[in-house]
Write a structure and sequence with these properties.
Layout lengths: L12 H15 L4 H8 L3 H8 L7 H11 L4 H10 L7 H8 L4 E6 L10 H13 L5 H17 L7 E7 H5 L5 H16 L3 E6 L13 E5 L5 E6 L4 E4 L2 H17 L3 H15 L1
Parallel strand pairs: 1-2, 2-3
Antiparallel strand pairs: 1-4, 4-5, 5-6
Helix pairs in contact: 1-5, 2-3, 4-5, 7-8, 10-12
């Protein structure tokens, strides 16, 4: 079949579920539209679940069990997908990020994943394990995803990356001084790249800061826009450019109020000296 994506069941619980769903569908000779009609959804939705771009809900899995006559096997398997370490909506966002021509991000409290060193990422997730917020296996999944996301952005032509970090991102210590020193070095290297802009949003901005939660805005190859906003437990992916435009305007206002890249680099260097 043309453009049929190969699935790696070892990649994630979502990939394993997608492979199982596709195998059951192939056994019956059904197209994605055929299965969607039987389950009361679109073939596009079936495709998104099969390729791991959309997690299977309990309702979806129950419907699939009914159609395939598999008891509750798919429902039980879908539970593992939903209990992954990744916030709802984020896996789909990552697939779009990997092909974006421009990435704009704003982060609060921690260095964003695209800019993290492996040691910083591991320290961050180790603390989540200590608090019993995630399992050690989930921590490994998150750290591996950080490396995978960074690797997809090393391509030609390089995507433009605009990063605005709340001052708390660089003021909050993570791990021992060596971890933070390496992380600061990584930020300074990032700022020197020809396809990047790094800015710090200082505490002094106060109420002029338009966002209180992490935010990502993507420009895709066809120039359409997509945004992803995240709370503590859930992410929201907005695919309609009309609704993303006001967010993009607010992001430009954030950039105008934030420190210039030169001033941001100076602040980072100053904080770095304070830990040495």
């Amino acid at each position: 079949m043309v453009n049929r994506k190969e699935l790696d069941p070892e990649e994630s619980p979502g990939a394993r579920f997608g492979q199982r769903l596709r195998a059951l569908r192939d056994e019956r000779g059904w197209t994605q539209d055929d299965l969607g009609e039987r389950m009361g959804c679109s073939g596009t939705h079936i495709s998104a679940v099969e390729t791991g771009r959309r997690p299977p809900t309990t309702r979806f899995a129950k419907s699939a069990d009914r159609v395939f006559g598999t008891g509750d096997r798919l429902e039980r398997q879908s539970s593992a997908v939903r209990h992954t370490a990744l916030i709802e909506g984020f896996p789909e966002y990552v697939t779009h990020e990997a092909r974006a021509t421009e990435v704009r991000l704003y982060e609060v409290g921690v260095i964003p994943g695209l800019l993290q060193t492996p040691e910083y990422a591991a320290t961050l997730e180790a603390d989540a394990v200590r608090r019993e917020a995630i399992t050690p296996e989930q921590a490994d999944e998150r750290v591996q995803l950080v490396a995978k996301r960074q690797a997809t952005l090393v391509r030609s032509p390089s995507p433009l990356i605009f990063a605005v970090l709340d001052e708390g991102c660089i003021r909050r210590p993570m791990g021992d001084p060596a971890v933070m020193d390496a992380q600061f070095a990584r930020l300074l290297e990032f700022a020197e790249l020809p396809n990047t802009v790094l800015q710090v949003a200082p505490f002094s901005m106060g109420a002029r800061r338009p966002f209180n939660l992490p935010l990502y805005i993507l420009t895709l190859p066809d120039r359409s826009l997509m945004s992803y906003a995240e709370s503590a437990h859930r992410g929201h992916l907005e695919r309609e450019s009309t609704f993303v435009l006001p967010v993009l305007t607010a992001y430009h206002q954030l950039q105008a109020e934030a420190l210039s890249q030169a001033a941001s680099v100076a602040v980072i260097e100053q904080v770095r000296k304070g830990i040495s």
